[in-house]
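Obj.: predict assembly geometry.
Materials: sequence records (below).
Method: joint structure prediction, all chains together.
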Amino acid sequence: MINKTFRFSTESLLPDISLILIEMGYSIPLADHYLSDLINDTLQQVRKHTRVQAGFIMLPKDSIKTQSNILFENRLLFEPGSIIMSQLQNVTSLAVFLATLGSDFDLWIKFVQQIDMLQAFVIDTIGSLMVEKAVDLLEEQISMQAMIRAEKCTNRFSPGYCQWLVDEQHQLFHLLPADFDWVKLQPSCLMTPLKSISGIIGLGKNVIKIPYHCAFCDNKSCYRRLKNRKGQ
Amino acid sequence: MNSRERITRILAGEKADRCGFWLGNPHPDSWAGLHDYFGTSTEEELRLLLKDDFRWICPWNAYQHPEGKPVFDMQRPGKTLSEGGVFADTINIDEVESFNWPQPEYLDFTGYKETLENAGDFYRAGGLWSPFFHEACDIFGMENYFLKMYTHPEVVHAVTQHLIDYYLAANRLCFEECGDLIDGFFFGNDFGSQHDILVSPALFTEFIYPYFRKLTELGKEYHKQIILHSCGSIFRVMNDLIALGVDAFHPLQAKAADMDADTLKQHFSGKVAFIGAIDTQDLLVNGSPDDVIKEVNRIKSVLGPSVVISPSHEALLPDVPPRNIEAMAKAVAGK
Amino acid sequence: MERLLFDLSIAIERGKENETSPYPPDLKGKPGAYEFTSRLLEMNCPPDTILKQGMMPGMDRIGKKFADGIVFIPEILIAAKAMKAAMTLLKPYFDNGAVLRKGKVIIGTVAGDLHDIGKNIVCMVLEGAGWEVFDLGVDVTKEKFLASLNEHPESIICMSALLTTTMREMEKSVTTIKQAFPQTKIYLGGAPLTSDFADKIGADGYFPDPHSLSKHLTGNL
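Observations (raw structure tokens):
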């Protein structure tokens, strides 16, 4: 089984100021100077509060079967629902990933919240973008590993999105090796540190990657859907 | 069919009227002897005389720092491969982040564009040379770089990310500015030794491919053919590199392990095009013109038509007799 | 004791330098070449035995894997790093003569050539095989080879070149050295070289990889 961990540099995850503004709901020309300055100041401080940890495992080839659910070594592993399952056709293995910005980042948000709610919002936004970016980098690594196994990758999916029940975080964390100890799963399925992402990517010789699209899913209040609308 | 169309078709795996030819990029010390033998006075004159189809036009001078700093100020005390640069002893990514990385805004491609506009009907291989693997070797020292892949992978990733970020930004600016004046994105990294690849396939997968792919994707976005230069034996990773978007390999170091024309044909024929293959480690240096003609004809029959005949190392050294270069060029056009 | 010697050889082969070194991940926090060597010395294991039955088998195995294309340059480098850590503990015994090396090797990349990676790996493998290596670096003139040979006249000479243009320099160096020291063995390495070339210029042999050179040198003792 492939087991890889990474400590991506903070710098490689830092988002553009324009991306932060869009994520916060502004279109770029409308941004006032005060906000831009605040974002720039905040970006200067990110490195002090961030300790990125990320990694993934790849389950053995042909250990996964998919029909209406995901079976691992012929036992039920995940029931992600029909939306995700429609994307996991022909999957024969899974990459399971985990990424976090570390607990200092949470403490930073908490601390700033008591002083300046706007800056806390900025930090929160930056954190969300950074941890997504860390998963982008993991996805690149996973796709390279898949390539040399002559396999292709699906999109990434996380419990709690696209109708996949968040309870299945427990099964997901069970798959992760003991040295992935930088994120703890609470009984409520909340991950600590908060700025963390877990999820899966399907692998297989005959997998077809469908471009990600919110039409897959009917969740009207999902953050991705809201973001896409704002970005238009 | 002009040279530009010929090479474009060869690299696309389509039919051309003949194999292509590239003289390579003779070492500065070799030019005097070449001009003396051929009676030429400029590089272009010699290329025209030898019916060279290919022009490698690289924006070496596009980065113009106001204080004249180099693109990567590596601070290496010497030139050997193992000599460490500024990150020789770095184990902390903060140090990587605080380095003075290059600023794409200092790039100016106006002179470069002019050169391309005057390049004639020849295939233009261009874009930045973008040797991120080598630059990582230099900035750490090759041995430190390879060791850190094991001991401090996060430092290696951080440095590689910065290198590739610069090359992505710089090539994007270059392609935006020069558009269709460039036919092929020609970039280089020496991944092999005489016997094998330098690092294992697993280290390629983790430390090279993800960054390499960004360069090929950028090239494809601008509709460039992707030409990879790598010295040495890269047989083990050629299939992967093809999957990552390589359209042609250069220079096919003929005497390196599994890089001979027959092996390449057997494994990669129809999947990729070839530029090079005429041995510079023995044949061009020590052989006779007849030997060279025989070998060019053999390579044409084995790898043709998807081959651009060229020395198996572009920097022809002064020990290659010009009569052998003449024989190589003539044999390309002949039957 | 035998178990510890075996563990030392494994630590070197796998590149586990010491307890705090992060690589390999599956040996995190476990003792490395340094700790095994110091334990062996504490148990009064003869330093000569540590070298010959602990370190050398480890370097030999990784060297063979390199020659066979199973591992690559980084794995040799990290094994050599572990070996060096262990060697620092043996240094006093080399100095006082308690451990005898197999012999002396003078090595360098010839004049005009700056390529050193292959040469450096040969140094590491030979040191790991119990030779005392004098590395003259790159761009080494025939005079420098001679000067070093005058200092250590019983040495073997190894020369490296990558460029076809600097192969010629080898010929001059070999001729000069053989004139002054007809008994000295001279071996060549480097990408464009062949055994025929070594014969032609009067050297004693060409080796394509460090392991085959090391085997040959040891076999000639």
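Conclusions so far: The first helix of chain A runs from residue 10 to 13.
To do: check interface contacts against the pulldown list.
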